[in-house]
Here is the input.
Amino acid sequence: MVNQFYVYAVDRDFGPFFLKFCSYFPYNAKLCINGHEWLKRQLELRGIGCEGLDNGILSCEEPKRAQKLCEGLSAEKIDALLRKWLRRLPHPFTAADRLAGYRYDLSILQAEFSLTQVLDRPVTGRAFFEEVICENLDIGRPSQAQLIFERRVNRRTPGQFRTRVITEGVIPSLHVDYKSSRIKQYHKEGRALRTETTINNTRDFGIGKNVRNLPALRSIGFQANRRLLDVQTVSHDCAIGEDAFDQVVRPIEVDGQRATALRFGDARTQALLNALVLFSVRTRGFNNAQLRAHLASLLGLDPADYSAGRMSYDLRRLRLHGLIERIPQTNRYQLATQGLKVAMFFSRTYARLLRPGLAEITDPLVPAGSTLRSAFNRLHSAIDQRCEDLKPAA
Here is the structure.
């Protein structure tokens, strides 16, 4: 017995779509559309040239107008598409059923919100994306998932919080899960970076399933995409200039207020900067007690041994050096954009470059054939030889 039947069609305004009908009570149905196909049709109808990239847009003659059209895809237009085709297609509800008030209503079963960023140098795009993956393998942790999805995560929050790197063929993709929703990121057709948030249950975000809630859901989806990219931008591009470096490592005076230097390599400074980059303190800002608990843990101290006054001194230093900002009319702080970059640069350079590098060239237990030690020994020999050559004759 056929219990499901599909209708595949091409609409003048929406392009290809399908309707799936269930042949038994309560006669559920599914409408599946693609917003990019709708956009392509709208551009074509208005005579605006564009080039597709699978189910995305590679290029467009009028990108700002295309964006405006995207924002015009509304719940009312989707509902009108359904009503239009229900008038043309056979379905389980007879005319008498409809007169009695039995009719289909639209709810959101799954919604996908994507951002396709076309690369101007696609040859290097794959290497760039693989580096982004390596730098963000921990982005699925609860503390970071709550930052990206802007939702509080605690022990009772259902679902798995994880990062998965999946390789289909030779194309890797990054997956970040939150409850029954996820963000997927991949290198699309070798030409673009594709970031897409798929929401499988609107109630994960406290939103009803009726299609009228599409604007609220769209806001969550696109904000999640942007927040993920913001985090990746900070981790991938964290170089700072000499002026910015001096602003942190030297004493500073702002409006008559003096602050001591945050010396690079100092144990307290490194612990302070590492505490700042913990995403759990970025969600809605942080206060003295919250940062103090993280800082004491990194220093191997009991929080009771690190006084509130001592933490206030550190907060003042961070604020005057421009790394944090006070949230108006509160006793809470938030990281400045430059502050997160500086904190990540200092902590990663110290932990990943200086400490292991110095250990490799100075630790007698490190094998003499290590790449860095061999290079350093050659440099040392060359300098010694140069000094020997320059000695004046007797």
